[in-house]
Amino acid sequence: MAIPEYKLSSVLCGHSMDVRCVATTKESCILSASRDRTARLWHPEGTKDFVNVVTYKGHDNFVSCVCWLPPCEAFPEGLVVTGSNDNTILGYNLQDGAIQIHLKGHNNAVCSVAPGNDSGILLSASWDNTSRIWNINSPQMSPVVLKGHQAAVWCVIELSNGVYATASADKTIKLWRKDGALINTLSGHTDCVRGLTIASSESFLSCSNDASIKLWSNKGDCINTYYGHSNYVYGISSNPESGMFASCGEDGALRLWSGTESIALRLPAHSVWSIACLNNGDVVTGSSDGIIRVFTKDPVRFADETTLKNYEEDCKKMIEASQQEIGGFKLSELPGPEVLLEPGRTDGQTKLVRRGASVKCYAWRAAGGTWEELGDVMGSTPPTQGKTMYQGQEYDFVFSVDIKDGAPPIKLPFNKTEDPWVAAQAFIHKHELPQVYLEQVANFIITNAKLDSVPASSNGYADPFTGESRYVPSSASPAGPTGGLPTVSSGPLKDPFTGEGAYTTSSNEKPLIPHDAYIRFDAANLKAIHDKLKEFNSKVGDGLNAFTDEQIENIVKLGEMDCTFNPETVTLLKKMLEWPKEILFPVLDVTRLAVRNKDINTQIFDTTYGPNFVKYLLTLLSPDNLSPNQLLSIRVLVNAFSALSGEMLVLSARERLLETMNMLTNISNNAQIAAMSLLLNLSVALCQQPDNIDLADSVVNLLNKITDNEAYFRGLVALGTLLAESPNKLIIQTKIVTSNNLHNRLKRDSSTEIPNFKKISICSQQILRLL
């Protein structure tokens, strides 16, 4: 049977984050579930439009799934049922959104809910490796638990013959009797099985991260395999009456199938998370851009010409962006950093990971249970004529600098519009090289770039975040191992990027945004920390948890940047972190310094201790905690980005982290700076991810509350980085413009001539240009 032409019919906007699930109800209404923690009911209006009539709220985390439970004995009008990453299930009155049921039992995110064939039966699946069968008519009854999968259960349905089918990340499908007894385990997919749907009274379909779709008999025989998607297949839905089915996935496509034949419709979104077929033959999608789209084969319901033209242009732009290649790999086909949360299978296994506009290679180290960054995958996309591409950006030069005999050279990118001294200092900071190399590196750039004129090198550079001047070697020959330390330049605060004594407004000034590197807090007085730890050690109590002087000295040494340490000392530090909150702040301070070391970072933020430690740090941010604990907990989280283990754990906890940050009130200026530094690091990590709208919300929220100028500056850099790089640029623009206080201040600060506000002025100007 030929597949008819489908076109866009309707666009439903209302959710502020990814739409993770779409479903249908009676009367061809649409249900949607989103990471914005809501579900919505959309009612048909006119020939092709839909209007949002009810918004369902109540979950503490994002809503991952939704379904319509038909009328039953306990609820004659039926229920809208949602599952959430808060591990719970809620049931709502369809018309007014009032919560009718609240089901608890799963120990991890609920990622699938579906009605059973019998009245009042609800099915759920969870990342806790189980599926549950609930009898809504008898809430006192314990659910039947389907237990046997070795990984998350992504989907559950009841087949036409009354058998339950579950799909799992362990690559299998299991069939179960109604009493929970296992009937059969179906193998065939080579990666996580994400979705299931009824194909006919005798068969069902499955879709998988292996980019395939399989047709199975209800007895478990594989009848056929369908290929067409180029990446993970997230969702599948069928219309048994027509014999057609539809699928969607990470390749940004909706694919319509008739037998083994299929056609693809490209959406202007990175990921199409969910799909549902309406009774009239239309198809509904939910995607990573927070938009629900309806497609139809009926010309009467086609969208108007302007809408179709805009849609086609958006799709064209998305396709062009997805064709960008680095190292021969399409960026759109590579996973983001979240894939590093999963352990490797074998020692030495490598993964290519999309990090913004660059691709990095990681290897699994079984001994430490961590992914180790091996380096960048160099780009193959042709740069502008006369330019060289490095880490997704174009430069006039990319030098190879030999630092150590036998070690591979380090890449040093440089543009002629940059100050060579600023570029040299950034290079030294990034690679943690001795400061005495500064002059040599700067002169190397000047010589090899053949610069005609060079800005003055003395008293030239101020870090845009710390405000501290750079180190300048003495006029004598470079100091040897026993020579004197370089001296700190003096004089007024300099421009953070040009190195000149006064700020300029030339068109050549280096943009403050987007920012592309993590920042951290390095300054410390280790002697003061040592003395305070010794003082508090005597107050621990009965002596059972007291530390010896030698142990305290070893713990403090962990705060040295290049320390050599015994892993047992890190264990002692973890023990010291159990001190009462009243005397905890010096322990947090030394922890903040210690996690800058990659090996210590890996031990602190390992998969055993790390998640609970991050949760503990977040509890220390509550308003009833001591101000020093609040400040230093945030600084620990900022410095966690110094190594991959800490970075991944903070990113995995970002939802609760952002919730906590949004509740911060009446904090000190230093804590404001720390908070905005943390949001800046998150912005660098997530600026090109589709799910960064909640981060933008937090940045805007805090920018409207903080009073410290340095904190405000860092917040502007975070906001500008998101605005410049995010696929959600239009949404972020709207948030800025509709925040009257922030928008007015941006316009006011963009024209200020006050020297101390100049970097805020420059950043404000750059943000306004992006609006």
Radius of gyration: 29 Å
Q: Helical residue percent?
A: 25-40%
Terminal CA distance reads 49 Å
What is the chains' assembly state?
A: single chain
Question: How would you name the CATH homologous superfamily of the largest domain?
Answer: YVTN repeat-like/Quinoprotein amine dehydrogenase
Instruction: Supply the CATH class of the largest domain.
Output: Mainly Beta
Low-pLDDT regions: 379-383, 455-509
General shape: globular
Describe the main β-sheet briefly: 4 strands, antiparallel
Can you count the helices? 18
Strand content: 25-35%
CATH fold naming of the largest domain? Methylamine Dehydrogenase, Chain H
Mean pLDDT: 82
Family: Belongs to the WD repeat PLAP family.
GO molecular function: ubiquitin binding
Protein name: Phospholipase A-2-activating protein
GO cellular component, one term: nucleus
